[in-house]
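Hi U.,

Before I forget, here's the chain from the pilot set. I'm dumping it here mostly so it's searchable later in email.
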Amino acid sequence: MSRITLLTVGAFIVPLLLHAQEEPALPWPVAEALRMESRSPGVIRMPELEGVAQALKKQHPSFPTFADSAMHAWIERWTTLERDHFRGMLALWQEQRPFIESQLRAAELPQELALLPLALSGMDPLHHTLSGAGIWALPHAVAVRYGLRVNDVNDSRHQPVLSTFAAIKHLSAVAKEFAAPDLRALAMACGPANAVRAQGRSGGETSLAALYPHVDPIDRSIVPRWMAALYLVDHVAALGLKPLILAPLPPTDTCRTTRPLSKVLLVSALPFEPSLLAWLVPTVVGRTVPAGTQLILPEGLCRRLAVITDSLNSAVVSAPQARTPLEDEAEERTPDGRETIYHRVVAGDVLGRIAERYGVTLSEVRRWNDIKGDQIDVGEVLTLHVAPAIKRKVERSEEKPVSQTAPNDQDFTWYTVRRGDSLYGIAKRLAGVSADSLMRFNGIGPDIRPGQRIKIPAR
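Structure:
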């Protein structure tokens, strides 16, 4: 094990470090926890970088590891300048760790992959770049290939459980494609095409340490961050890297919208922070919250939303002069005079019949909703641009308020979690239902709490 040097945090060291580089934006539970945490000077245990490679090899003998200057730089950064950020990342990772590791075991994949999302996204579900999104930084094509919904309104990559299911399928496919362990690890971290390009650029190198510098520049820091995370998690106690105690979420209610709502107006009308809404409902990525969207809101706000829904819609319809440029982009009328409505898929729906019902073509429905084939899921909300007469007809038949129960009760029933319940225990009592299917159906992890309401799929 490497030696540990104790470095006292003095009055001059931290300011100099903070001027060197700004810390990245933090997810809501981390930022809130740091805001409430009492701050005081302390002791930072800095790792000696000699022997890091040997320590990694000892802890992970059957997995490709290495230590180089780039990896060392991330260790120093996460133990000094971004120490609190790393503590937050560590806390978020520990919340997801049991679920991720169980999925890796089931797929017979290396446990070292459990720390890959920490390197890819810092465990931030809201992570989004041109390369990918969510904790696994899944590219658009990969996410859609493995069943996630990704469009301008909803992006399932931001839901940790759903993105983990997709990521495990992707990693399993990559593992079968690459026989060499080092090239396989690179393909899992940076993508198969990137790994193949790196192999060609390297002139035939075979080790992970020699291959990763040849991946595309935008992805070049992923592998060093991964190696640094492996080392730091192995030595958290010796390094004094105590995970941050995350700020608890407020008690919440669950409700479902029946009309599209402007996200700007929703946040301004309800008394809570936009960052909290983004954390509670991470998959809604557009400026408009579509009809049929399940919202998780601080306790009491679902009732308030039910009261103000009509006024929110009236504000959009009756006061066009007050609209902001941001809201103008969400205008519900298309250039050819059609108007936008939303159709929630129910059991028995097929795309062709939906298109015929609303007087549009099948190809239009596919294009508007980024659907490649004919598969649609019960509960999915489709965007449709229809003639004004069709919209008026639909609106006359939709005179329901926001409800805290699902619009289509035959598809699932609500169950209120009791003290001592677990998802695995609940699943055992239900024929044909597994804990994994409950997590996927509800978009949650394995941890549940008394009073929480979960959906039980109809059998």
